[in-house]
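Quick one: structure for this chain?
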Amino acid sequence: MDGFLDPGTVNPARSETSFHFLRPEDDAEVRRLLHAAPLAGSLRLRLTQEPSYLGATALGGAEETLLVARQAGRVVALGRCTVQDRFIDGRPQRCGYLCQLRLASDAVRRGALVRDGFRAFAQALSERPAALYFTSILDDNTRARTVLERPGPGRPLYTRAGGYSTFVLNVPAPNAAHRLRLRAEAALARAGLRITPGTAVTPAGLTAALNGLAREHPLALVWSENLLARLARHGLEPRDFLLLHRGNQCVAACALWDQRAFRQIVVDGYAPPLDLLRHAYNIFSFLRRRPLLPAPGGSLRLAYLSPLLCRRDAFETLPPLADLARALAATRGLHYLVLGHGAGESARDRAFAALRARRTGSTLHRVTWAGDTGSSTVASPAPPWHPEVALL
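Got it. Here's what it folds into:
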């Protein structure tokens, strides 16, 4: 297991472990590995990709490197790097996002497996390196932070680049959505803003509006008409976009992206005392017409408010824009909206603090590969970073 092994090959000297690129025949095993790795907390969640793992990759034509490790003939580890064009200092750059690093609980020689897995990744990425690699680690995931932030021979360097928060908003009951929409529209009208649905602009116009906003935000996605057409195959269509205009200038934009057809968040279980209080909470929520906590095994009916872009002089538009999106979500039978926020810009921080939402904190890291694979061609942009939460 001394380095990267081409697909299907096995190191004869140490045949207990081998690395290869993910193949279609690995799909079921990889999905089982995701099911077996819930996120810890009072509400244990599993991030799944059903009915096909590969069907939830390469969104919008993104370049993917997907590696698995096998021991005794079965998949025991997974790693993924997604490369897309993102803005750095206002210019498009190839950026790689490292995610879904999973390790089976019964894998042997786990320390060596992690080390050699990173070496395999570094070799695989060296042929077409990105200008910058980054990842996100939940603040509560102390185990991952201990392993990944610790320097070691042959391991990449994880450098903290700033905080990132994930907010979960409740969606109102359908009969309350109309009132919420009217309040949001009135607030935006008082601010002199015009609401433009995505269906009212051409693909070229939508692309120009999104890029005009995104270039101000480090690591925001670079948009194109081709990207829009490709993402429509994964559920993101013009009808999902909302734009805010002041005069002829677009000052904010968002999209309601429902990914449940290929990517789900499933409740694995509840820790005490929430497991005992869930039924009482659901009775209270039912009477207040709020979303119920599903039984273990049920998936959350949510969508991502992503992208979520705003000019720096228009952060006050974010709360009413989020309310407008919540009202739209209610008409689609959704219960929750998920938003992402790169912390560290005071006006934007205040706008997000005004949202009545549950917050989960994480930390963004720049990843620099050992042995220089060309991943240091650009300087780290100043925080806050703003990658789209729907692509994390």
